[in-house]
Design a protein that fits this description.
By secondary structure, the chain is an alpha/beta fold. The chain has seven helices and eight strands; from the N terminus they run E-H-E-H-E-H-E-H-E-E-H-E-H-E-H. Bound molecules: D-xylitol-5-phosphate (DX5) and zinc ion. The site of D-xylitol-5-phosphate has 22 residues, from strand 2 and strand 8.
Length: about 220
C-alpha cells in the first residue's frame, strides 16, 4: 500500500524573527505538514522552543502540526503540546522507560501518537508498541541540529520498518539531511513523510521555498516509482 508523499518543512531552519510568516510561506509553497522540533538541552544538546510557540503559530494555518519532542521526560509536557494545537505528538523511544504509557497518553489526549528512533536504535523497540502508533519517525541524523548529513546506515532500517508496518495505517517519516539529492534514498526504502529544514528554507522567500519543496517531492516520487 502506498501512502501519499508528504513534505514536512522543519521550522527549525526558518527565520525565528519572522516565524509566523515562514510558516505560512511554507504552506503557500506546498508544504503538507509543518514539523515542529522541540529540544530541551538535555535529551539533545540544543534548545529550541516550547508549547507557547506552537500555540502562537496555531491560528495561522490549518496544516497538520507534526510535533517532534526531543525532550526527556516527555510525559509531563504532553498535555501542554496537545492544548497548544499539535495534531501529531512524537516521543523518542530513548527518552524514557515507559514508551507504551507515553503513546497511550498521547492518544488519550485525542492526538495522533508518533514514536521516533535515533540512528543507533534498532527497530526492535517498535515490536510491542506498533499497534499504539500512528507514525514512526526514523532519525537519519543524530537529533539536535539542522543541516547535518543523511546517515546511509538508516536506509536498511527504514526498509525493515516499512515491512513491519505492512498494511497498518501508519505514516513512516524520515528526518535529517533530506534534500532533493538524498530524498529518493529513504523514499525508495518506504518512507512517505519527508522532513526537511535547511533544504526547504534556503533562498529566503516563498518562491524559493516552492521550488525547494517541489524538488524534494519530485525526487521522492520518482524514487518510489
Ligand atoms: C534534527 C531535527 C530535524 C532538523 C532537520 O534534530 O529533528 O527536524 O530540523 O534539519 P535538516 O533538514 O536541515 O537536516
Ligand atoms: Zn525533527
Amino acid at each position: 500500500m502506498h501512502r501519499p508523499i508528504r513534505i514536512a518543512p522543519s521550522i527549525l531552519a526558518a527565520n525565528f524573527a519572522r516565524l509566523g510568516q515562514d510558516v505560512t510561506d511554507a504552506v503557500t509553497a506546498g508544504a503538507d505538514w509543518i514539523h515542529l522540533d522541540i529540544m530541551d538541552g538535555h535529551f539533545v544538546p540544543n534548545i529550541s522552543f516550547g508549547p507557547d510557540v506552537v500555540k502562537a503559530l496555531r491560528p495561522l494555518t490549518d496544516a497538520v502540526f507534526d510535533c517532534h519532542l526531543m525532550i526527556a521526560p516527555a510525559d509531563p509536557y504532553l498535555e501542554a503540546f496537545a492544548k497548544a494545537g499539535a495534531d501529531i505528538i512524537t516521543v523518542h523511544a530513548e527518552a524514557g522507560p515507559h514508551l507504551h504509557r507515553s503513546l497511550q497518553a498521547i492518544r488519550a489526549l485525542g492526538k495522533k501518537a508518533g514514536v521516533s528512533i535515533n540512528p543507533a536504535t534498532p527497530e526492535s523497540v517498535l515490536d510491542y508498541v506498533i499497534d499504539q502508533v500512528d507514525l514512526i519517525l526514523v532519525m537519519s541524523v543524530n537529533p539536535g541540529f539542522g543541516g547535518q548529513k543523511y546517515i546511509p546506515a538508516v536506509t536498511e532500517k527504514i526498509a525493515r520498518i516499512h515491512k513491519l508496518i505492512g498494511d497498518r495505517p501508519i505514516e513512516l517519516e524520515v528526518d535529517g539531511g533530506i534534500t532533493a539529492e538524498t530524498a529518493g534514498i529513504p523514499a525508495a526504502a518506504g518512507v512517505n513523510v519527508l522532513v526537511a529544514g535547511s533544504a526547504v528554507y534556503k533562498g529566503d522567500d516563498v518562491e524559493a521555498y516552492r521550488a525547494n519543496i517541489a524538488a524534494i517531492r519530485a525526487a521522492a516520487e520518482k524514487a518510489r516509482g
